[in-house]
């Protein structure tokens, strides 16, 4: 009988064959662009876009002086990209003497396998084995799964996020400290996870009559929540210390939305409405964003999502609130939704073979669509991945 990890490995390997084939087809017709020549080889094609920024961080580190645009605003720079992933890649480069591109892709691929294995274990805590395995199928075939083998931090981040969620469900709070530390320095997530942990503590305290929550345990869980919140502030503080500019990190992040709405102050919970108006005009932009918020809130209370359990729903709610508070909606927002991967567990519940085959086919078609729209470059491209 094949062990669970063997089944997950087969699913992962087959999915990478499909995804790699799609990537190679698109690379073969890719024209010259800012990162590569025509028809680039795989590793060059896989290190475009933000992969170049991670390359800069790995080789040169971060600027001590922020770049300033002609209008006096902070321009795009490396402080927007956290050090976890490029540091791992650079260490491996030093050990192997291999160049950036193959090493960066290798790191992402290895972490994608690790995430698939952990995701099965996470889903198996709340779903039957067959459903947990199909959730892994959906994860590996998801429309944005090509990014799991590109020079982006998503594979590494999802690995540590999935591990953190698993430890939370296991209530192994001590082990969360190092996991959160790495996770929060790989992708912005410390504040969102702190909120989820805080809500977890409150829920356990309220329900302590049927689920004992002794004093030493809630103090430990609360301290981990506080630690996560502090880790969420470490990178902005580091940027401030290195540049002397209190708003170095925030202003750097705002530079990426300037082409859409110009340079504006970061006012929490306004960016989605600003984006809605930019994309759809007023009042439809406001109406659509409001409808999306309400739809997501209702989704969290549907039977399929409730089946995931309280803690995973608290993470979904916390991360959704974090996105609403600070991110501007554009083409890379699809990538920013990847930490909501527990929702794939809800999507995996139906056991109909027709449904499951259709979902996989739809997801693979979505990969091709995402690659065409967001990864492939056609002239001046304003749809970054």
TrEMBL record:
Main localization (coarse): endoplasmic reticulum
> What does the record say about its membrane topology?
Multi-pass membrane protein
Offer an example of a GO molecular function term for this protein: GPI mannosyltransferase activity
- Give the range the annotation lists for the signal sequence: none
According to its UniProt entry, the protein's GO biological process terms are: GPI anchor biosynthetic process
Subcellular location(s) of the protein: Endoplasmic reticulum membrane
Q: Which InterPro entries match?
A: PIG-V/Gpi18 (IPR007315)
UniProt pathway annotation: Glycolipid biosynthesis; glycosylphosphatidylinositol-anchor biosynthesis
Q: What is this protein called?
A: Glycosyltransferase RgtA/B/C/D-like domain-containing protein
Organism annotation:
Cryobacterium lyxosi
Give TM segment ranges. 100-120, 132-153, 173-197, 218-242, 284-302, 314-334, 354-377
Q: Which UniProt keywords apply?
A: Endoplasmic reticulum, Glycosyltransferase, GPI-anchor biosynthesis, Membrane, Transferase, Transmembrane, Transmembrane helix
- Could you state one GO cellular component term attached to this entry? membrane
């Amino acid at each position: 009988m094949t062990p669970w990890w063997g089944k997950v490995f087969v699913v992962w390997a087959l999915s990478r064959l499909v995804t790699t084939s799609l990537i190679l087809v698109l690379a073969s017709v890719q024209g010259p662009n800012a990162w590569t020549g025509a028809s680039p080889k795989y590793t060059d094609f896989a290190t475009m876009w933000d992969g170049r920024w991670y390359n800069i961080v790995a080789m040169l580190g971060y600027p001590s002086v922020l770049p300033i645009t002609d209008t006096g605003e902070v321009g795009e720079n490396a402080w927007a990209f956290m050090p976890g992933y490029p540091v791992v890649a650079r260490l491996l480069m030093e050990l192997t003497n291999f160049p950036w591109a193959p090493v960066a892709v290798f790191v992402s691929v290895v972490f994608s396998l690790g995430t698939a294995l952990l995701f099965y274990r996470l889903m198996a805590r709340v779903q039957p084995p067959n459903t947990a395995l199909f959730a892994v199928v959906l994860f590996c075939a998801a429309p944005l799964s090509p990014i799991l083998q590109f020079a982006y931090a998503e594979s590494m981040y999802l690995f540590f996020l999935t591990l953190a969620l698993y430890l939370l469900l296991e209530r192994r709070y001590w082990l969360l400290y190092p996991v959160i530390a790495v996770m929060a320095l790989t992708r912005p997530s410390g504040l969102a996870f702190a909120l989820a942990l805080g809500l977890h503590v409150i829920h356990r305290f309220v329900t302590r009559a049927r689920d004992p929550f002794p004093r030493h345990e809630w103090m430990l869980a609360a301290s981990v929540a506080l630690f996560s919140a502090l880790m969420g502030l470490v990178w902005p503080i580091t940027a401030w210390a290195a540049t002397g500019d209190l708003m170095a990190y925030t202003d750097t992040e705002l530079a990426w939305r300037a082409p859409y709405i110009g340079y504006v102050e970061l006012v929490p919970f306004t960016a989605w409405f600003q984006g809605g108006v930019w994309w759809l005009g007023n009042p439809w932009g406001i109406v659509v964003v409001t409808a999306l918020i309400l739809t997501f809130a209702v989704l969290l209370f549907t039977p399929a999502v409730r089946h995931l359990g309280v803690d995973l729903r608290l993470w979904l709610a916390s991360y959704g609130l974090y996105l609403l508070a600070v991110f501007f909606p554009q083409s890379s927002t699809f990538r920013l939704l990847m930490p909501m991967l527990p929702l794939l567990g809800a999507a995996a519940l139906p056991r109909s073979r027709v449904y499951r085959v259709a979902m996989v086919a739809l997801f693979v078609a979505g990969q091709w669509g995402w690659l065409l729209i967001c990864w492939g470059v056609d002239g001046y491209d304003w749809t970054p991945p």
